[in-house]
Design goal:
The chain has one helix spanning about 70-80, and strands spanning about 10, 15-20, 35, 40-45, 50, 55-60. Helices cover about 15% and strands about 30% of the residues. It is built from one helix and six strands, in the order E-E-E-E-E-E-H. It starts with 7 loop residues before the first strand and ends in a 5-residue tail after the last helix.
């Protein structure tokens, strides 16, 4: 993986932003290693050293795939679920 301009990277639909007191241009587009342990904890390594990070943005799930025969029922249920009460 590599960093974007604002020291962010994406892994498993989550955007991580590296926290550093002195942002440096040398880290832009730098290669990093993402480690995921058995408990799903993420470690980001740069030149063998662990980096501090925050979760910048977690992407929402994509829409559910609905079979053609179920479209009308799905739309009807969606309208009921999101209908604000006055």
């Amino acid at each position: 993986m590599s960093f974007w301009k604002n020291l962010t990277l994406q892994f498993h639909k989550i955007v991580y932003q590296i926290q550093t007191p002195h942002p440096t241009y040398t880290m832009r587009h730098a290669a990093v290693t993402i480690c995921l342990d058995a408990r799903q904890n993420v470690t980001i390594l740069y030149k063998g050293k662990s980096l501090d990070y925050t979760i910048f943005h977690k992407q929402s799930n994509q829409s559910e795939v609905v079979q053609p025969k179920q479209i009308n029922l799905a739309l009807l249920n969606q309208n009921r679920a999101h209908n604000p009460r006055s």
